[in-house]
Amino acid sequence: TIKDWRQKSDGSITGLIYGSRMFGAGESITTSPIQGKAAENAVVQTKTGSKYYLGTKSVVGRKGLFGFGGGGGAGAKKAVSPAQANKKTVVIKKNTSKEDALAK
Q1: What pTM did the predictor assign?
Q2: CB-based contacts of 6: which residues, under 8 Å, 6+ apart?
Q3: Which of 34, 84, 90, 99 is 20 to 30 A from residue 42's alpha carbon, by CA?
Q4: Per-residue pLDDT tens digits for 9-26
Q5: Which one-letter DSSP state was computed for residue 85?
């Protein structure tokens, strides 16, 4: 179930997920774009085939009352299939600190 949700301009849904084995209760997620229009208390299907039950829609949107804050921003996780969840991603960062530069 996705609660406190909104449909974004690209057709995806962003909100808080509950009852998922893949995400913690109340975790912020964004789905891939869905087929058709989203509605409260209805099951929607993404274009990739995932299905979600949409609970209560967000009243003020994920940005908050005055347009500040931010659901669906940097902290939001993309909803993924179980097959995608098992893939590992490795990120390697080059150390570019000033101390390192001076040591060379």
Answers
A1: 0.57
A2: 13, 14, 15, 57, 58, 61, 62, 71
A3: 84
A4: 999 999 999 999 989 999
A5: H
